[in-house]
Amino acid sequence: MRNESVSSEHADKVRLDKWLWAARFFKTRALATEAINGGHVHLNGSRAKPARAVNVDDELNITKGSEVFVVLVKLLSERRGPASVAQQLYEESADSREKREQYAEQRRLEKASSNQPERRPDKRARRQIIRFTGK
């Protein structure tokens, strides 16, 4: 008897939501589907549906919060594995990586320059804040 099942690493096509989940861009397939439906994922420059097939050498633009990833699909997988395996599924463009690093550095500098209290206000201070703001 011949084994008819196709290995997930050698599949010709994989659903977009499964691939995003397997590549560890989203923690669950439901979150991946929600992001795709919300327009945060573009396949080859156009919006896609969760069931759209992903092929090798497709370009994905993925927006997660304030970060934007531009990746090229290198391998296909329907299974979620360790992070080291997931990183082999795609290759992020150098421009995308550089922009993300610059944005992260900018956020770090803004946070360092802001005046933040050393600790949270205690009960008395909270009451004073409420009285002052009128809320």
Count every helix, treating DSSP H or I runs of 4 or more residues as helices: 5
Structural class: alpha+beta
Largest sheet: 5 strands, antiparallel
CATH architecture: Roll
Question: What's the order of the H and E elements?
Answer: EHHEEEEEHEHH
What's the number of structural domains?
A: 1
Concise account of the structure shown:
The chain is α+β, with helices and mostly antiparallel strands and 135 residues long. The chain is 38% helix and 19% strand.
Name some characteristics of this structure.
alpha+beta, 38% helix, 135 residues, Structural Genomics Hypothetical 15.5 Kd Protein In mrcA-pckA Intergenic Region, Chain A, single chain, elongated, two-stranded antiparallel sheet, 5-stranded antiparallel sheet, 19% strand
Question: Could you explain how this protein is built, in words?
Answer:
The chain has 135 residues and is an alpha+beta fold. The chain has one domain: Structural Genomics Hypothetical 15.5 Kd Protein In mrcA-pckA Intergenic Region, Chain A. It is 38% helix and 19% strand. A five-stranded antiparallel β-sheet has the order 3-2-5-6-7. A two-stranded antiparallel sheet has the order 1-4. Helix 1 crosses helix 2.
